[in-house]
């Protein structure tokens, strides 16, 4: 409970709410100070706030929320289990404490205050001229203090964060001493952290579930969570023998009570059908003891990350598993995030699959969009936002998609460590029509499968254009495309139905044009970059003397040169589409 | 007066004002309809609305306004001399009727309504969800109906125009028939026009004027305005013999009553001192009868454009004229804009100079910033916003400015027909510090000398960076720099004191690097562009096969290549600064 330094240290704190009367046709905000007494009351029902994440590793701060699309606002419920002299909660571009948009609860030891504030580039707090975090209630309960507040997606305050689809970096800070004013707080100096969530969860109608539905739990067998910050735990599970083809129609997380703040994300992979059997294993994924063969268990069946709820397939489709041509072996991978290095904690978390033998109309499939894994797509060093684009062209969809089209209902974005933004758009007849999925605050550390707000229909002749933005400010040499952790990818795994043979629809720049680029840079800079054909593309990129001209011309090349198209069937046989000239610059969606 | 189609056609119209109660913390606007009776009253005093322009060529619509910087709002007074069934007034990027932000007064024949609306890309009107034009009053007077309304500079409505410094393109339209709803109006189909003004006039403290101040009127001698849309009229005036050195400390327009809508802008130029005498002349500037020698009268003494008020020099400075080394001959140039081709109108407009023999502390000077007039700076065809930048470098200011610096107090931006935006910023120690003058809606048809909101101090070592944005969408070949009307310039004439020897501080790209560019484009495109040295730079630009790559690489070149600096004394002798490497990209002002 909140401590006060007055004569009656056990009394309930009083709350002053600062609210803003938004003046009619003027920019001058008038503050009204309204006194509200904290109510002793029961905690709000969980169903009011369906989404929940712990903010700190100990779970002392627990955030629940709901989204009102008609009102374009998010309602937050923050449970503070051990309130001291206040709390900061807010959002910033990538989780920084500087230039953040904050709701602040603070106490001077006598009274408590709530306000909408922002932190400057030095972390110093300032009151917003317009108060957009609206305090709705403050309730005391045995487990702690509940703060209920509300925030529109978009405010007109330039100091405010714009809540958009995709990842939101939430930050929190704990005030351990009384503060006499908001201006006295410097967020950089206080204890706090960050948590990534998808705040704007889509409003999905849950499809009716069949009567014959069964469940299967793929869970860790009471493992001791290692006392280290990061562990990827691998556990092999097995389907029953003669398990016929079923459809997974839903799955949900099973998180051991008390470990909510430790279980960061979990995935269930199916192994390759080429092998008759896989060894049992239960241990860290990076252990030398892990059998090699487990690397052949990479086909995603289910994926969950903190803050996500149950995943429902659309009623026309299910994800096939079991039956001939499908491996009986599954690999569960759990990412434990244990920054406080808690020792001896046991965990049996995992994923519960809901499946049916009554197959739905369509098998669901996963298609890979974006860039081919090739070094010809590279990012110069020292870039704060370099953009690469991969195309799934009209020619490829023309050949590979059924006349009735496919329906994309979910998407998982993927890059390596330099990725900062990812977006896929659908274009038809040379015009952008629809955003398939977009994350302007993408983090490679938070890769969820996300249900789309609306199912996207893709027809033969449509184009799917995936654009990734990278930050290489900390790097001293070029970052080329590839599989390595310091190489880059630009991928959107789209979940769709009905399944087709097209498993991969990606592009890269034409290598001949890249050769012309190396040539040009060489001549323009009077440099002796080795142009010998035996030198690899990465080596050529590494030898470029980077400057704004060479950087800009590489950008121009990627925007101009023809592309090489990869339009592959599941069997790794390519559809006969290879070269394509680059699609023209398209007018943006909604213009 | 407004006509109504009811039983009493002569009654005064009633006005319904639509106002918005901006809802507390929601995006939903609730419309309150308030009935206000139009008052018979006297016209507001002119001093309340110090700035005035006619909107239409007949002057039936007259706009006056004032600016409240504390409230960040403009108060408008619109006099409608012959109201029919309503009026549209608003603003758009460059004076288009589509995508415009509009205040609309309309009558259905019974009642009149006022609202804030916007026009879509087809000219169709829609009511804004947020009402930001606030009607303050509607008054009947013998001369017509006065509408008083107010608009904040910036609203949060994305459909609204942002009122900024520099040119604002005002548009108007006249409703000649009753309309039953705002949605029934398509602005593209109605009679209207555009007028350019600087809405956000700076709030200048008028300096005290000396007792010995005299006035001199340089006015047209009762000329008959030609019955054609555009006339530039030239009239030669002469200072008295033995007119000693004086300081012009103020000037103001003298516009013949009734011709307010015809006199578009006026300038007084001083002739070159090299010639002992100049012929008399009174006629169109483009006449074959105009003596050649008048082309040597180009030194600006005073300039006025529609909507501008008196121009005051700062109290420390005056513009020198008269005395030895200064020509006695002046040329008055008046731009008559007569789109209705009115015949036989007589005019004696001109400029009244206020001057004093008691010289002020400093002579004022004019310095030219931006780009050298050279074809090496070119704009590819088909560009909607191509940017060129000219530098007045630290090295030049270091050599040419006095240790105490100079003070820039006014600025006149200049480009030819493709110019769309111009901005000059001051940088110090590699960081942008201050915007000297900025016009995001610049028009080559509206080139005023504008007083700066704040005087800008420039010290040795400072840089002045002038950036122009061009539109060449309608052109099929490259636009090169030069003097021709279809060539381009990027210039900011800054008015400052104390006068120095530095008359010109401009740059262009290093010609050697441009040669490398032609070479590169040639090789990359496998084209046979003639690289022979006898081919001129314009010819080489005209022969480039323009595509996005060649365009982007030209941009990159201009951003990367070293510059050639022109740092010239009045005597056309250059200060010894020639080559400079390009200043690094600077962080923007206020970040």
- The 3D shape of chain A can be described as globular
Total discrete domains of chain A: 3
Largest interface: A-B, 31 and 32 residues
- Can you tell me the CATH class of the largest domain in chain A? Mainly Beta
- Helical content of chain A stands at under 10%
Query: What value does the average pLDDT of chain A take?
Result: 86
The amount of beta strand of chain A, in percent, is 35-45%
Runs of chain A with pLDDT <50, length 5+? 1-46
CATH topology of the largest domain in chain A: Jelly Rolls
CATH architecture of the largest domain in chain A: Sandwich
> How is the biggest beta sheet of chain A arranged?
8 strands, mixed
- Say what oligomer this is: homodimer
Summing up helix and strand content along with how strands pair, one would put the structural category of chain A as mainly beta
Radius of gyration of chain A: 26 Å
The first-to-last residue Cα distance of chain A is: 52 Å
Number of helices of chain A: 4
Instruction: Report the count of strand segments of chain A.
Output: 40
């Amino acid at each position: 409970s909140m401590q006060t330094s007055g004569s009656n240290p056990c009394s309930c704190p009083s709350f002053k709410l600062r609210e803003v009367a938004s003046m009619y046709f003027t920019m001058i905000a008038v503050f009204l100070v309204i006194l509200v007494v904290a109510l002793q009351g029961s905690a709000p029902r969980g169903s009011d706030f369906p989404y929940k994440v712990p903010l700190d590793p100990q779970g002392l701060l627990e955030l629940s929320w709901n989204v009102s699309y008609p009102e374009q606002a998010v309602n937050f419920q923050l449970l503070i289990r051990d309130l001291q002299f206040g709390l900061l909660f807010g959002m910033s571009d990538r989780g920084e404490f500087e230039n953040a948009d904050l709701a602040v609860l603070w106490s001077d030891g006598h009274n408590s205050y709530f306000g909408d504030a922002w932190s400057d580039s030095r972390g110093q707090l300032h009151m917003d001229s317009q108060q957009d975090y609206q305090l709705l209630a403050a309730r005391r309960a045995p487990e702690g203090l509940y703060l209920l507040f509300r925030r529109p997606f978009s405010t007109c305050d330039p100091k405010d964060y714009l809540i958009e689809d995709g990842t939101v970096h939430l930050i929190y800070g704990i005030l351990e001493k009384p503060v006499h004013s908001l201006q006295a707080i410097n967020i950089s100096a206080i204890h706090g952290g960050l948590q990534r969530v998808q705040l704007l969860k889509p409003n999905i109608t849950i499809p009716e579930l069949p009567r014959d539905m069964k469940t299967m739990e793929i869970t860790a067998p009471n493992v001791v969570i290692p006392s280290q910050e990061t562990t990827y735990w691998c556990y092999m599970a097995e389907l029953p023998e003669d398990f016929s083809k079923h459809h997974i129609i839903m799955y949900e997380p099973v998180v051991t009570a008390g470990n909510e703040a430790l279980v960061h994300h979990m995935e269930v992979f199916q192994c390759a059908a080429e092998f008759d059997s896989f060894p049992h294993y239960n241990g860290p994924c990076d252990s030398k003891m892990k059998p090699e063969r487990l690397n052949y268990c990479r086909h995603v069946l289910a994926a969950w990350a903190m803050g996500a709820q149950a995943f429902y397939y659309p009623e026309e489709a299910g994800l096939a598993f079991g039956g001939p041509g499908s491996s009986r072996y599954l690999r569960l991978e759990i990412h434990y995030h244990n920054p406080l290095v808690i020792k001896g904690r046991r965990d049996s978390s995992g994923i519960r699959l809901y499946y049916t033998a009554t197959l739905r109309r369509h098998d669901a499939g996963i298609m890979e969009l974006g860039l081919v894994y090739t070094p010809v797509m590279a990012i110069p060093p020292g870039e704060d936002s370099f953009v690469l684009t991969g195309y799934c062209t009209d020619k490829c969809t023309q050949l590979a998609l059924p006349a009735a089209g496919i329906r994309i209902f979910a998407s998982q974005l993927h890059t390596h460590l330099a990725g900062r933004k990812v977006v896929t758009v659908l274009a038809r007849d040379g015009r952008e029509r629809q955003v398939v999925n977009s994350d302007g605050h993408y983090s490679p550390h938070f890769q969820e499968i996300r249900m789309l707000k609306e199912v996207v229909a893709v027809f033969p002749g449509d184009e799917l254009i995936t654009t990734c933005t990278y930050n290489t400010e900390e790097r001293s040499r070029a970052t080329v495309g590839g599989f390595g952790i310091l190489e880059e990818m630009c991928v959107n795994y789209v979940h769709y139905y009905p399944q087709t043979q097209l498993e991969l629809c990606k592009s890269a720049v034409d290598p001949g044009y890249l050769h012309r680029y190396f040539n040009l840079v060489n001549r323009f800079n009077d440099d002796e970059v080795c142009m010998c054909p035996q030198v690899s593309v990465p080596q050529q990129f590494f030898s470029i003397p980077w400057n704004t001209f060479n950087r800009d011309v590489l950008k121009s090349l990627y925007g101009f040169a023809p592309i090489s198209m990869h339009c592959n069937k599941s069997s790794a046989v390519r559809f006969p589409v290879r070269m394509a000239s680059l699609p023209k610059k398209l007018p943006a969606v909604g213009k």
